[in-house]
Write a structure and sequence with these properties.
The protein is of the alpha/beta class and 254 residues long. The chain folds into 2 domains: 135 residues, 3-Layer(aba) Sandwich (Rossmann fold), CATH 3.40.50.2300; 106 residues, LytTr DNA-binding domain (OB fold (Dihydrolipoamide Acetyltransferase, E2P)). 29% of the residues lie in helices and 31% in strands. The chain has a 5-stranded parallel β-sheet, with helices on both faces. Strands 10-9-8-12-11 form a 5-stranded antiparallel β-sheet. Strands 13-14-15 form a 3-stranded antiparallel β-sheet, with no helix packed on it. Strand 4, helix 4 and strand 5 form a beta-alpha-beta unit. It is elongated. 29% of the residues are buried. The model has no long low-confidence stretch (mean pLDDT 87).
Length: 254
């Protein structure tokens, strides 16, 4: 008797693949396992070559995530996502796939997914890869960087964020100034710095980004602007821009 579905398991962890293979054994009359892949590259080649009906797809893999795998396929199979991260167990996963399974996969939960698959038959629920990638990226922990590399001659120095008082854009380049008054030139523009800097750095006008922790005094100025006096060697004074005033007040709790 021919099986109703062909299936592939994709997971970078061998024990996880063994577990899924074992759980599938009692459904072999309905689901025929035709291959396994241990990374994204192998998964793409296997899926494109064997064209399975269903893929048990790990989300986190070393070379690429499960959504990136799906984005590179010419034909998308039905998908049951498998993940070790409960934070990814979102309604969006249920809406965009047959189902999802949390590691370690429990037999009862696995059976529920298979029954759902058998009920749906060949109704392929296409994954909205772009939406899933967006959610996935939002849930990833941000990498905490603590210093900014700057070139000085033939050397690269790492300037810790904690000692940077402010950045200033002038004459086509950006300088950073430390609390001791030292100046270094950055390869990044202010917009690029805004994306990389931690939350305690604040754009206060077109030409300045300030370390909030270095502000020691705030004075009112005309046109609803502010003068920020910094706790650095030069007691630097920076006048805020009118278009930035609302975000400054919110950031500083004014």
């Amino acid at each position: 008797m021919k099986s109703e579905f062909t299936a592939i398991i994709v997971d970078d962890e061998r024990p996880a693949r063994l577990m899924l293979r074992s759980l599938l054994e009692k459904y072999q009359a309905k689901i025929y396992l035709i291959g396994e892949a241990q990374n994204g590259k192998e998964a793409i080649e296997l899926i494109e070559g064997k064209k399975p009906d269903i893929v048990f797809l790990d989300i986190q893999m070393p070379d690429m995530n499960g959504f990136e795998v799906l984005s590179r396929l010419t034909r998308q199979p039905m998908v049951i996502f498998v993940t070790a991260y409960e934070q990814y167990a979102l309604d969006a996963f249920r809406e965009n796939s047959i189902d999802y399974l949390l590691k370690p996969v429990e037999e009862e939960r696995f059976d529920q997914s298979i029954q759902k698959l058998l009920r749906l038959g060949n109704m392929n629920k296409v994954v909205d890869v772009a939406a899933m990638l967006k959610i996935f990226n939002q849930l990833q922990p941000k990498k905490e960087i603590t210093a900014l590399p700057v070139k000085v001659g033939q050397k690269i120095l790492l300037i810790r964020f904690a000692v940077i008082s402010y950045f200033e854009s002038r004459d086509g380049y950006v300088s950073l100034f430390t609390s001791t008054g030292k100046e270094y030139v950055s390869d990044l523009n202010l917009q690029e710095l805004e994306e990389k800097l931690p939350d305690n750095f604040l754009r206060v006008q077109k030409s300045f980004i300030v370390n909030k922790d270095s502000i020691k005094e705030i004075q009112r100025y005309f046109n609803n602007r502010l003068i920020l006096i910094l706790d650095d060697r030069n007691n630097t004074k920076i006048t805020t821009g009118t278009s930035y005033i609302l975000q400054i007040r919110n950031a500083l709790g004014l």
